[in-house]
Model the fold of this input.
Amino acid sequence: MKQPFRQGDRVEIYRRSQDENWEPYMDAYLGLRGIVSDPDTVINDPEALVRVTLDGTGGTHRFPQDCLRRVGEE
Done:
C-alpha cells in the first residue's frame, strides 16, 4: 500500500493523471520535481489533490496524487 504524501516530501510529476482535475496545461509540468507543501494529512484521502511547490518555477500547484511519486521511487 502506498504511503500518504507528507509535508516536505520530494516528488516528481512523472505521468499524466487519469483524474478529472488534470488540465491540459499541466502537461508542461511533466518531469518536474518539487516539494509537497500542503498534503491532506488529516484524512489521507488518496483522491485529494496535493499542493506541490515546483523547483525553479516559483509556483505552487495542486496535483492529483496518481501523477506524483516520491523522488527515488520507481
Remarks:
- The chain has no helices and five strands.
